[in-house]
């Protein structure tokens, strides 16, 4: 299958990618940076390639922005990047519910993925994202 461009930021933790979606300025890159600070690896910032492989959805760096992350007030910085299978979609939104019993399912490039509406404005958002991956993410 051909890879398609998808507007999102993406990091990987222990070989499982979190696709971080949301409106411009909501904090996708900030969450990615916090996760990278905790040991995650960058896949791509503000755009990734998605490709279906053997029933899994893989996220890859976009060739136009490979290894680049835009850090507010600092500009474009370079860092290592990887590709990884997507295990979870976090939709950053201020209308996220306070409690959920299970993740919703969303389709990306023909693959069903668990998706959580995720409140972005929290000093512990990275810890919450890691917990969301462990509780709701697809296994590797």
From TrEMBL:
SUPFAM superfamilies named in the record: PEP carboxykinase-like
GO biological process: regulation of carbohydrate metabolic process
Alphabetized UniProt keyword annotations: Kinase, Transferase
This protein's record includes keyword Chloroplast: no
Gene Ontology terms, MF aspect: ATP binding; phosphorelay sensor kinase activity
Keyword Transferase attached: yes
InterPro entries per UniProt: Hpr_kin/Pase_C, P-loop_NTPase
Protein name per the record: Serine kinase
Organism of derivation: Croceicoccus naphthovorans
């Amino acid at each position: 299958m051909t890879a398609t461009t998808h507007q999102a930021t993406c990091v990987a933790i222990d070989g499982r990618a979190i696709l971080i979606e949301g409106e411009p300025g909501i904090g996708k890159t900030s969450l990615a940076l916090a996760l990278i600070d905790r040991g995650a690896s960058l896949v791509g910032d503000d755009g990734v390639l998605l490709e279906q492989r053997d029933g899994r959805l893989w996220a890859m760096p976009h060739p136009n922005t490979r290894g680049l992350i835009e850090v507010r007030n600092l500009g474009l910085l370079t860092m290592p990047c990887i590709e990884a299978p997507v295990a979870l979609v976090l939709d950053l939104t201020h209308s996220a519910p306070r409690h959920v019993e299970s993740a919703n399912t969303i389709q990306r490039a023909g693959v069903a993925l668990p998706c959580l509406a995720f409140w972005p404005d929290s000093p512990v958002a990275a810890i919450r994202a890691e917990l969301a991956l462990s509780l709701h993410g697809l296994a590797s």
